[in-house]
Amino acid sequence: MPVRTPDPDPGDHGDEDGAIDPLDAALGRSLPSDSATPAWLSDVELAQVRRRMPILYVEAIPVRTDGTGSVTEVGLLLRATPMGEITRTIVSGRVRYGETIRDALFRHLENDLGPMAFPLLPPQPAPFTVAEYFPLPGVSPFHDERQHAVSLPFIVPVTGTCEPRQDALEVTWMSPREAASEPVAAEMEGGRGTLVRLGLASVGALR
Amino acid sequence: MPVRTPDPDPGDHGDEDGAIDPLDAALGRSLPSDSATPAWLSDVELAQVRRRMPILYVEAIPVRTDGTGSVTEVGLLLRATPMGEITRTIVSGRVRYGETIRDALFRHLENDLGPMAFPLLPPQPAPFTVAEYFPLPGVSPFHDERQHAVSLPFIVPVTGTCEPRQDALEVTWMSPREAASEPVAAEMEGGRGTLVRLGLASVGALR
Amino acid sequence: MPVRTPDPDPGDHGDEDGAIDPLDAALGRSLPSDSATPAWLSDVELAQVRRRMPILYVEAIPVRTDGTGSVTEVGLLLRATPMGEITRTIVSGRVRYGETIRDALFRHLENDLGPMAFPLLPPQPAPFTVAEYFPLPGVSPFHDERQHAVSLPFIVPVTGTCEPRQDALEVTWMSPREAASEPVAAEMEGGRGTLVRLGLASVGALR
Amino acid sequence: MPVRTPDPDPGDHGDEDGAIDPLDAALGRSLPSDSATPAWLSDVELAQVRRRMPILYVEAIPVRTDGTGSVTEVGLLLRATPMGEITRTIVSGRVRYGETIRDALFRHLENDLGPMAFPLLPPQPAPFTVAEYFPLPGVSPFHDERQHAVSLPFIVPVTGTCEPRQDALEVTWMSPREAASEPVAAEMEGGRGTLVRLGLASVGALR
What we know:
The structure is a homotetramer.
Chain A: H1 22-27, H2 43-49, E1 55-65, E2 71-80, E3 86-89, E4 91-94, H3 101-113, E5 131-134, E6 142-143, E7 149-157, E8 168-174, H4 176-179, H5 182-187, H6 192-202
Parallel strand pairs in A: 1-7, 5-6
Antiparallel strand pairs in A: 1-2, 1-4, 2-3, 2-8, 5-7
């Protein structure tokens, strides 16, 4: 599926307008304005940095598990691109300056799945793979025309109710087999169909 | 700490007396008597096999986690040996013929922590290490004079209340730092102090 | 592909006829005869134990890597079953009493790939998944009608020349994409097509 | 050990002066000057970005292994800080824009160990943990006063001869036990003593 305007990171639009930076909070600093906040990037600055540095992301594949921990369902997000196209994706977003990987994961899970999803973050800090998104297609299985992004992806069981916010239209739950199928992979943006398969393999749910 | 009569597998005493074998259940077979049940081992047979085959075990290190999945506490079992000695250990037991690793883990967790522990088994099937217990000390960090046991150990968050059953006297919760300390390691049987450290390292909780 | 007589463990035929048991060697014991060697199982005993205990296996997927460690090729074994059927498989075999996982892996790699394969065993003891083979099909993706086997599988780069011994006819090298394809998976015995995919996913080589 | 001027990333000094950027090379672009090369950061720009974005690092713990893959020795770097202090560290450096993790690892290994080290990069893309270095001590076990760095660390067997270049004085080989000891950990900068222990645990070489 052609994706003319991939935008896997819509949750980040809120990063620059009013949220509390964890590092500043830790320092007891107030936030009078964006320009005075060294830890924030304006949209222009972000655009510049995106062409000069690899940008660190976290990603999460939401799953349902049975009583013994086996993955029974996978939750994929349906999202409308600015061009009005419908694509599938997973939970995905940048790690902020001063933010821990866990806090970033939790923030993006809440942004994308709503406050009642009750995700169970894994105790292990190591991701199941490292996904390298390059602006040039073909360097790796993953592609993001905006930037060189390096993503740490995790399988995250969710135990509550998902109410997608922001521009995610809905969460679709499906079997591992369907989530790993060719048609679903073809609908996912930036090569994330491959990422879903690698994640399902890490939990033994790929055939 | 010298351990003259290591017995990390007391939950197995129930294996030969009346429990339903999952394979037989799947086959719809009845269980008229032990001797007629090929999947069961008598104590004599078990003793023989233990000197001729590596025996497959699962082990679990119970932990408490905070809202972002970080390990905050480790639960170690206090257990009295047949000699009346008090040792520390973790959840540990054999995998039965026809039983899945997940079912074996769940069974031993329930046996050792009680029915209200509500363990969250990990979606990943891979253990954090493979612990090889040899009858001869020194071959590996792990030792079991009864047998050559190969154990698949997992970190398992528990969310409920632990009420040890069988011969486990009590579950002691402590910080990761304390659980990894020399004095605690010295009280653990069969080299499991090393296993606790490897497990804590796998969740980034070892300093 | 129907496999009437799966036999993924031909290397084990040598287990009972004259090889040195590592435990006995460590103890300085001589081996006057099979019947006097407690660590050995006769064929009859092995057949009995196979219906009463999960049997511990190691498996290895041989790969070629490029200069930066990326997997470029996968080596699958072609093997003739006793029925004269040709199937594909991977390196696979039992762990002996008293033998370490590493020694078992090395022994089976040498048995199946010859003495000039120069395999590079991974420093990590944890397998990329745990493959549970049940005699009843459908309990898991893996099936072995002879026994309940629990296998610890590893990706193993080989740097030398493979000269299959025993009943392996040949090693076929192919791209990760081909090794993960449906036609190849259909030729593999006992569900090992799934195992190859899980292994390729663990090294980021599955699309 | 107090480290007033931690500088775990000396290999990066060369990043801005004349090396070929892999992305530009792929595009066939020439590099007339630093200012015209969007993928490069000047020292001033790097200093600015370091206070506003998490910076992606790779790290490697060099090890020697025996014939079955067991870790027998660990190689730690001795390095003189700009203040003349001697500290221990591991291979560490930034990932460039457009560069793969594998290429970054290989580049920093060659920078720090010399061209004859012959490192064997692991086929797995997942690091053994994720090390988060914060400018504020105490947020995590890892600390870097210059920046918020997120590092993907790997265990890397080296098979050749190490001839440290740049400001690394020497590689010291020691047993896993010594590398994990308190005195050695106290000499390591930025909390890398903990990182060495986590790495040794991942290969089963921590007691």
